[in-house]
Amino acid sequence: MKIRNVIGLAGLALAATANAQTTFTNSTLIAIPDNSTTGVTSSVSSNLGGLVTQIQVTLQFGTTTTAGNREHTFMGDLLVQLRYQDSGGGDSGFIDIFSRVGRNSTTSTSLAPTAVGSPFGRGDDMNGTYNFGDQFFNTLWAPTTVAGSSGRGTAAVNANMPSNPFTANAFNPGTSVNNPAQGYRATSNAAGIIGADGTPLLVSLNGAFGAFSATGTWTLFVRDLGSGDTGEILSWSVTILPTPGAAALLGIGGLAATRRRRA
Questions:
Q1: Which pLDDT score, from 0 to 100, does residue 61 have?
Q2: CA distance linking residue 117 with residue 233, whole number of Å
Q3: DSSP summary character for residue 162
Q4: Among 59, 105, 203, 240, which residue is least crowded by beta carbons within 10 Å?
Q5: Helices and strands counted in the chain (H then E)
Q6: Helix boundaries (H) for 46-116
Q7: What's the pLDDT score for residue 144?
């Protein structure tokens, strides 16, 4: 009975530590330059023990046409990436959150995603807050996500992409995981031009950033690569679920040792 108590107490301590997800936010407004390969960067630092196991990226775009709270019209212009670095030399490189959504072989035969100018991608607007993570199912590429949407490979601006309220329980969205109102999978158009069927490459953020230290610097890199449309990101964040750090594991071991001595 005493041995079972030790295991149970240690397990509870481990679960409590391992499930301590934390959100790190940069609330400095990002004005996205139009038609620019230089783009703009913004960084936030995390300071958790242990290693990254799961991550969610949240972007809050403006919701009006007024400077200081401007939506980004024509989302197909955007290439949004995230990079992780730490003092020990850890470096993920730039990982796509989404890139030139809707730009496929029906609108181009040669241009890479990082090339500026036409042809066009998806013409809908980023308006509100958007969550990206492996726990979600839908992508920004889904042509049926928005009623009346311009869909893939067209230039018309007809709708806002459904936005997502930020949830504190980021990695347990429940039965709404397949609902675009909850969040989106990260996607890449890095292969060049997505095929005519519009199927993007899914990006695993947990796979890209998992096993890095949960203490480091996260850099958001945003580029608008088409002319005539722009917008602003009001704030952005990374939510991290780490493994328990070494100190936590030592504490659990000490708890177990204490219980054994008392036995």
A1: 97
A2: 21
A3: P
A4: 105
A5: 3, 10
A6: none
A7: 46
* Positions of the chain with pLDDT lower than 70, given as ranges: 1-19, 104-120, 143-158, 167-169, 173-181, 190-199, 245-263
The span from the CA of 254 to the CA of 263, in Å, is 14
Burial (Cβ within 10 Å: 0-12, 13-18, ≥19) of residue 227: middle
Closest listed residue to residue 217, CA positions, set 45, 82, 83:
45
DSSP 175: G
Residue showing tokens 């609902």: 179
Is the peptide bond between 119 and the residue preceding it cis, with omega within 30 degrees of 0? yes
Amino acid at 139: T
**What is the predicted pLDDT for the residue at 189?**
80
The position carrying tokens 């730039």 is 94
What value, to the nearest 5°, has the Cα angle with vertex 65 and ends 64 and 67? 100
